[in-house]
Amino acid sequence: MTKISPKNIAEAVYKATEGKSGQELSFAIKRSAQLIKDKRMLGKSDEVLSALSNIFDKKTGIVRAKITTAKNIKEEEKSKLENEIKERYKAQKVISEFFEKEELLGGMRVEVGDEVLDSTYRHKLHELEKFLMQRK
């Protein structure tokens, strides 16, 4: 007997709801929720929703980015960064969240899915420290 993963359920929910609206969509969602309950996976509902969101984003060309900087950046810089992400990932749309963390000292950290580009000063100093410690 194979184990049903949250990703499997998310794919099934996506296929069951694809192209539906109104009563049909409502019925498909209720059946999906009942399946999750019957399979005793309510505790994994966050994982199912996350996987479903990823599937939807992939099908619609949406890329989600989390950008952390030491200081607030201007709207034009945000727009430029979003356009670069859109080009790099060949996305239709970029949904970005911007965060500020003063302890980064400067630079920025960009997270898109599992990929992380960390060009913060704090990270660079840490890398330099590691390099210098290896030389001893």
Please tell me about this protein's structure:
The protein has five helices and four strands; from the N terminus they run αααβαβββα. The chain is an alpha+beta fold and 136 residues long. It has a four-stranded mixed β-sheet. Strand 1 (62-69), helix 4 and strand 2 (93-100) form a beta-alpha-beta unit. Helix 1 crosses helix 3. The model has no long low-confidence stretch (mean pLDDT 89).
The portion of residues forming beta strands comes to 15-25%
Rough outline: elongated
Mean pLDDT across all amino acids: 89
The total beta strand count reads 4
**Oligomeric description of these chains:** single chain
Strand order of the largest sheet: 2-1-3-4
Class from helix and strand fractions: alpha+beta
End-to-end Cα distance, whole Å, is 55 Å
Count of the domains: 2
As a whole number of angstroms, the C-alpha radius of gyration is 20 Å
Number of helices: 5
- Taking pLDDT < 50 over at least 5 consecutive residues as the criterion, the unreliable ranges are none
Order of helices and strands: HHHEHEEEH
Helical amount among residues, as a percent range? 40-55%
Q: Main beta sheet, described?
A: 4 strands, mixed
